[in-house]
Amino acid sequence: MKSLKIVITLLVVAVFASCNNKRERQVQYMPDMYVSVPYDANGASSAGDVPVNRLPVAGTVSKNGVVAYDIPDSNEGYEKAKAELKNPLKNDDKNLANGKKMYGIYCAVCHGTKGDGNGILMQREKFLGIPNYKDRDITEGSIYHVLMYGKNMMGSHSSQLTYKERWQVVQYVQKLRSELKK
After folding, report:
1. 142 lies in some domain
2. 3-class DSSP state for residue 61?
3. Residue 99's CB: how many other CB atoms inside 10 A?
4. Using only C-alpha atoms, what is the Rg of the chain?
5. Helix (H) and strand (E) counts for the chain?
6. pLDDT by residue (tens digit) across 25-73?
7. Which residues span the domain enclosing 137?
8. C-beta separation of 180 from 111 below 8 A
């Protein structure tokens, strides 16, 4: 009998609580599920003013091995990279072998296996005017910069290749260029 009185009392309280204004939410279970905190994906601060999506401090390397590339995507940046940027990797067979492999996957389809600009897309006339490495005034830095940002019809390959792989491709392109000049 006592438990019946408790159940009836709870039922009456629930009925009165539900008779409030129906246009306004009274109680919200897990409010974070309904009202999410918006974040600016382009580097604003998140909740608690914690910075998100920021570049690491100049000269540092993040934990996952990503190295910040702070040369801008401009003609001045291209010239700066061309003049100043040097390959940090040792020029050895292991780096050249992986550079050749990555070149075959990402570059040969346009630039050709020899670097002569006669890849399969050029042969099928999908893209015309693909440069020959022999004819270009390029350096390690300019090749790396173009891999990072792209140039003219060529898009960026920075999301497909890691930092090390980009430098390995640079080594392999330099090797192809020297073979074309013979």
Report:
1. yes
2. strand
3. 26
4. 30
5. 8, 0
6. 667 777 777 777 665 555 555 555 665 556 666 766 655 556 677 888 8
7. 75-180
8. no
The answer to whether residue 11 is domain-embedded is no
Contact in structure between 171 and 95 (CB atoms under 8 Å): yes
**pLDDT category of residue 4 using cuts at 50, 70 and 90:** confident
Angle CA 109–115–121, to nearest 5: 25
From CA 93, how far away is CA 8, in angstroms rounded? 84
Number of domains in the chain: 1
The model's pTM: 0.64
% of the chain exceeding 70 in pLDDT: 79
Residue the block writes with tokens 């974040």: 39
Q: What's the pLDDT tens digit per position in 124-139?
A: 888 888 888 887 888 9
